[in-house]
Please model this.
Amino acid sequence: MRLDDTLKRLQLIVVTGKGGVGKTALACTIGRLLAEAGRKTLVLEVDPRENVHQMLGVAPSGGAVVPAGSDLWVQNLKPEEVLDALVRERLHIEFLVRRVLASPVYTQFSAGAPGLKELGILGHALRLLRGAAGSGAPALDTVVLDAPATGHGVRLLTAPKLVAEVIESGPFSDLAKELASWLADPAAVGVVIATQAEEMPVTEALELAVELEDRFGRQPIALVVNGLYPPLAEATAPGPLRDLWRERRRLNERELAHLRAAWVGPILTLPLLPIDRGPELVATLGRCLSPGLEAERMSVATS
Ligand SMILES: Nc1ncnc2c1ncn2[C@@H]1O[C@H](COP(=O)(O)OP(=O)(O)O)[C@@H](O)[C@H]1O
Ligand SMILES: [Mg+2]
Model:
């Protein structure tokens, strides 16, 4: 199947990778392309800096779901708050909810227990996709998650299974089981790794792909190599800048070859653009990404 069609069928696209490689730019670019294709899409960010808002030209909105164009919404998520909302939704009897939320056991548990924050984030995404009332969003087709940096990305995906193994009954257990089986469905959830064609990011992207395979039993649907130096124009005047550019480009080509030799799945590239963070960058990156999404085929996903 074409990679763009694969993306259009997914409910959750997790964009992961090391910070600073363009993860947020890529999440916004994918979100925008999906919205342009008519999918009701939300780009979900878990980072207090609200970079997604800036990237899509939306004012900081303090946690609310806000529109960012036709069929496109953004939300900056506060994980602590969504966990409480999930408890409310799962425990239907109001007095019980109040008791649970006020209890010191819950407070300590939700702040400290490994995996619960991740459960909150994923549970929130699933709720939005099911059109949870009061979220401010319509029934969505897709959530693009700008995931926390590398190691946390894998933790996010493995958390439900781990929590389900540790907690055997009750609302958290039910939620964890539900999320684990959702994540295990390659037709519903896909992972995209963002990286750059430099030594460290390439090594880390390959490690991340291996870790995903080992711990989550899944290949990423694509690696996206961002910020490639465009080939130098023939007419460029000689000088130190030209030499530097040429050197960066040479390094990019070497690392791209390294990546291609080490990973057989789809690899897409995005150029370094002379555009500041914002909607114009996202629109231009979208035009750069589309041909690759149309040309690449998706290798068969395993779960
Ligand atoms: N292809 C690109 N061309 C030019 N600038 C880019 C590109 N990709 C990302 N940037 C810029 O690089 C910075 C880091 O990108 P960002 O997406 O926020 O990275 P991350 O989320 O991985 O930390 C931002 O200022 C962004 O605008
Ligand atoms: Mg970011």
User: Anything to note?
Assistant: Residues 240-262 form the longest helix (23 residues). The chain has a mean pLDDT of 88. The radius of gyration is 20 Å. The pocket of magnesium ion (ligand 2) is lined by residues 23-24, 47, 51, 146 (CB under 6 Å).
